[in-house]
Request: fold
Amino acid sequence: MEKSRLNREICGVLICLTALLITLSLLTYNPGDRSLNTPSGAIDTNNWGGFVGAYLADLLLQGLGLSSYLVPILLCIIA
Reply:
């Protein structure tokens, strides 16, 4: 019983941290950063999420468009 509650709390924290990473990545998105569809000679990224954030923000914006800004909100609601 107690282990189940602990597992739910750990999942909730992980989902909130994922939402935070997505939010930071989307807010600091730079089209010049290296990503799957943007070949760039730049080694450093301007995204606060690093290269993972640059790829994540690019995938979300290319796949969902501006509605990708709703993903972190939905994740927080789920958490």
User: Anything to note?
Assistant: Helices lie at 2-27, 50-64, 71-78. DSSP finds three helices and no strands in the chain. The mean pLDDT is 90.
